[in-house]
Amino acid sequence: MSTPEHIVFVTGRLARARLEKVAAGLPENLHWSIADAGVKVAALMTEEIIRRRIVLPEGATRIILPGRCRANPEHLAAHFGVPVERGPDEVVDLPAWLGLTARKVDLSRHDLRIFSEIVDASKMSVAQIVAKGLDLAQRGSDVIDLGGLPDTPFPHLEESVQALKGAGLKVSVDSFSREELVRGAGAGADFLLSLNEETLDLAFETDAVPILVPLRPDDLPSLDRAIERMLKAGRPFLADPILEPIHHGFVDSIARYRDTRARWPEIDMMMGTGNLTELTEADSLGVTALLVGMCSELSIGNVLIVQVSNHTRRTVEEHDAARRIMYAAKADSALPKGYGRALLALHDKRPFVQTADEIAQAAAEVRDPNYRIVTAADGIHLYNRDIHRVGTDAMAFFPELDVASDGAHAFYLGAELAKAETAWRLGKRYVQDEALDWGCAADADIEDATAFKKAGHTRHSGPDAPPPGTRDARLAGPEAGATPPETIPEAQVRAEAAPERPQDPPTKLVCGRLVPADKA
Description:
Residues 95-360 form the Pterin-binding domain. The protein is an alpha/beta fold.
């Protein structure tokens, strides 16, 4: 008979009441204890403090540390002789973290291959193309697609394909020109975009896998005939019924994907999502999630994406996050809810981790002059031992702060309050001294969870500042590696503000490709 689990939650004095409240709501069959390390703030606990002050109750089988505790769990596990884990940052997330109110999430798998098109490859050097391809691959792309432009020579196409292949990347060539497709295939391209029934002979002249499209987006029978020919020949291929932009056949094109899958349940398919993400001026993350959800339902295993517009600058990361979440949800036969925050950029499902009453209780126990900033449903809370103010305008707090002679501290508080106001207005989670979590819409800082943050950015510059030349004074400066602000000469500003010289003719995106506007 196995030993029943007994979890020990390690905490500090300020968080203990909240932890007790949350732990009291855990299932009755889960045995737990709370071990108070005797420090106010759990994040300041060190390995030495935990080793000296924590005594495990008899039968303890696991220790859970606060998420912001910088102690090394492996070192503590060796000391106590039981597994030690770092829990969630916020106490309210503990039940979900334990898997008691939410499913265990595995986002390591997916079944969607991302083709990322370099739309202006013909205008780039081989070195630039390789650098761009490696960057796209690092972000999550599986195949680098070289896009050819109408009436634009691509003399270095073969060299580009070979250079990308030499860098270990899969390559596709995307062109309206049969000659360019032949050249790309001859250079070793893995895929060719896009062939229809009139150009399908090329598929039998090369080992490259063709992506089949209809003669026109609304001519689905022509796609069916191309599919039949490839199946009879026993040759691999992908089929793409072509996604159309909104107000230009979008709904009908979605129906064509459904109909194609119904007629051909076993074939490999592709969807080019750029005609919606690029040609809809809306945050692309939600659009991407919807399209990848459709791909998941229809078992479409490939997407062709492009990033031309600034508002789609994170399209690779968005598709990568969406494919993992949709795969996990489909595997669980579940809605795509409760699989992390990667697809939540502007708002959080649970933005406020404390109520106004809980914050007031914590504020009443503070005995030092350091300012704490927390958000709740009623606004931004700022408090120390002397004040507790609540508001929704960051700038309105300044008269209440005793920092008129302390520029560094005023700067820090202004930045934090502005960040808190942004989070409160959007409904995002705010944590003092932490960057806001923008999901896959921005890169997250990678930090060592076993090391304390560098001191300095909250230190005073006034009478209590550390003496010049001391360790604390060095830490109070800019963080290591930070780029200092630079002064731009007025002449440079004027030059950069001057009207731009005429550029290349305007283009439009059609079926995932850039073409001259007058020919679109």
